[in-house]
Amino acid sequence: MFKGSIVALVTPFRNGAFDEKAYGDLIEWHIAQGTHGIVPCGTTGEASTLSFEEHYRVIEVAVEAVNKRIPVIAGTGANATDEAIDLTKRAKQLGADGALVVTPYYNKPTQEGLYRHYKAIAGAVDIPLVLYNVPGRTAVNLLPATVARLAEIRNVVGIKEATGDMKQASELIRLCGDRLSVVSGDDFTTLPMLCLGGRGAISVTANVAPGDSAGMFNAWERGDIAKARELHYKLEPVNAAMFIETNPIPVKTAVALMGRITDELRLPLCEMSAANKEKLAGVLKNAGII
């Protein structure tokens, strides 16, 4: 259902508040650049520092700005199942096309607990669900066997696989086949995952290079492997630069250097060090982004 270059969109702030105008402008730019989908309120969108009211408003603005032109997959994960259900219900009411639901964090559920968590959400809200596995942040790994069980549920339609482990990705795709849209959650693994049978990426890098990110997927889809490989290697220095400090600090700084937003972050995130900002600017200049 969901495929291509799907941007995990930054949430711009101005003077401490959500900058709705800048957000709408970003979405228009992404659509013009060929981005295949928008994720509001993901990790890169600083969902963890948004109030519930802000969270809902960011989703609402995204849905209104996109206006059905491409899918909107709203981040609705939480470490309490009831809270994730409430967030997902609201996302559906606001018009989201799907929900991206990160594994519960901090409480470290078992595989059976993870299965029951997602099954409960899927049963409570009739909306396409994309699982989100990012153990580097959540301290729990949603294993392929558990995902295969979840893939039997009608409205579990995809997974953002962000382990960076190609062996796990391969096993995931082997077990789930066409039942699930597997997308990369790490930009450097997007092309390798396409080779294994993945369907694209929920991307950080697409925030700054949407045309090339979408172009790599489009080239792969039309069988132009050489072009896809060329764009992969072109994007690799940018992919690396997006993580020279904790995401989303570098990407938000990069979008600000492009003149599209301010570089405001919310504590406990803070501005980049001067040395790293200089390195980031150098990568962006070399890539022709600024």
From TrEMBL:
One of its GO terms (molecular function) is 4-hydroxy-tetrahydrodipicolinate synthase activity. The keyword Amino-acid biosynthesis applies. The record marks 43, 106 as: Part of a proton relay during catalysis. The keyword Flavoprotein does not apply. Signal peptide: none annotated. It comes from the Bacteria. The active site is at 132 (proton donor/acceptor), 160 (schiff-base intermediate with substrate). Gene3D superfamilies: Aldolase class I. InterPro entries: Aldolase_TIM (IPR013785), DapA (IPR005263), DapA-like (IPR002220), Schiff_base-form_aldolases_AS (IPR020625), Schiff_base-form_aldolases_CS (IPR020624). It is found in: Cytoplasm. One of its GO terms (cellular component) is cytosol. Its EC number is 4.3.3.7. GO terms for biological process: diaminopimelate biosynthetic process; lysine biosynthetic process via diaminopimelate. Keywords: Amino-acid biosynthesis, Cytoplasm, Diaminopimelate biosynthesis, Lyase, Lysine biosynthesis, Schiff base. Pyruvate binds at residues 44, 202. Pathway: Amino-acid biosynthesis; L-lysine biosynthesis via DAP pathway; (S)-tetrahydrodipicolinate from L-aspartate: step 3/4. Homotetramer; dimer of dimers. Catalyzes the condensation of (S)-aspartate-beta-semialdehyde [(S)-ASA] and pyruvate to 4-hydroxy-tetrahydrodipicolinate (HTPA). PANTHER family: 4-HYDROXY-2-OXOGLUTARATE ALDOLASE, MITOCHONDRIAL (PTHR12128:SF66), DIHYDRODIPICOLINATE SYNTHASE (PTHR12128). Belongs to the DapA family. NCBIfam families: dapA. This is 4-hydroxy-tetrahydrodipicolinate synthase. It comes from Candidatus Nitrobium versatile.
